[in-house]
């Protein structure tokens, strides 16, 4: 990253955030794979739900715990930006947009990882499927992937892709459509996780 910065002689974190979604693709499944799968494997999920703790509270607690961890981890971007600002005129508005985009992207991928983890009792299976799902969600909007499909389907894939909305927000422009995309997709995955836990508790007939 620093080699590219000094090569182009521009004070920007753009090249760092270009590779960040691909790093998330591996790190986030590693953190979410045991969120519910390990609870099932150890038999502690039933123990938790017999206490005065609802399925929704359990899921939101898992989600907020992992997302907060990422929020604090991403704070290390700002000392990096401050040190880079000493060598040039850094656009701080863009830096905050990039931080916010990273936080929203991590929230979507965390909610997806928790959803997939709710289907398995094996952490390895949850990790592999989460990594594949994250890869598809990130690569869906790229030209290399969407050019192999009809125009209507490729347009849908571009809207579905998390990387397109991430790149749009990382430019420093906070569009309500991008914010709505991240919030709604996170809520959908968490909602599906809730339904899956309810199904496992009451059975298929409920």
Description:
The protein has 206 residues and is mainly α. The protein is built from twelve helices and no strands.
What's this entry about, in short?
The chain contains 12 helices and no strands. By secondary structure, it is an all-alpha fold. The protein is globular, with a radius of gyration of 19 Å.
Q: Residue ranges: pLDDT <50 for 5 or more in a row?
A: none
**Major sheet characteristics:** none
H/E element string?
HHHHHHHHHHHH
SS content category: mainly alpha
Q: End-to-end span in angstroms?
A: 53 Å
Count of DSSP H/I helices? 12
Please state the CA-atom Rg, rounded to the nearest Å: 19 Å
Helical content (DSSP H or I, runs of 4+)? over 70%
Strand fraction equals under 5%
Cα shape: globular
Total number of strands: 0
Q: Compute the average pLDDT.
A: 83
List the helices and strands and how they pair.
Elements: H1 2-8, H2 14-32, H3 37-42, H4 44-49, H5 55-74, H6 77-85, H7 92-117, H8 123-139, H9 143-146, H10 151-160, H11 162-170, H12 176-202
Based on the model shown, name its key terms.
single chain; 206 residues; mainly alpha; 78% helix; 0% strand
């Amino acid at each position: 990253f620093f080699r590219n910065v000094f090569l182009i002689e521009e004070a920007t974190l753009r090249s760092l955030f270009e590779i960040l979604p691909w790093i998330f693709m591996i790190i986030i499944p590693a953190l979410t794979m045991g969120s519910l799968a390990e609870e099932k494997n150890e038999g502690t999920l039933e123990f938790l739900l017999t206490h005065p703790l609802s399925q929704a509270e359990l899921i939101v607690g898992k989600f907020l715990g992992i997302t907060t961890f990422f929020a604090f981890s991403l704070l290390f971007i700002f000392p990096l930006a401050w040190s880079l600002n000493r060598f040039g005129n850094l656009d701080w508005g863009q830096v905050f947009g990039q931080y916010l985009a990273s936080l929203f992207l991590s929230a979507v991928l965390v909610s997806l990882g928790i959803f997939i983890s709710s289907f398995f009792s094996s952490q390895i299976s949850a990790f592999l499927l989460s990594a594949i799902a994250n890869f598809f969600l990130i690569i869906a909007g790229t030209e290399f992937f969407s050019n192999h499909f009809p125009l209507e389907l490729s347009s849908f894939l571009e809207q579905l892709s998390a990387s397109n909305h991430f790149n749009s927000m990382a430019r420093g422009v906070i569009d309500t459509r991008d914010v709505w995309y991240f919030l709604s997709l996170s809520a959908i995955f968490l909602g599906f996780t809730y339904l899956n836990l309810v199904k496992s508790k009451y059975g298929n007939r409920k």
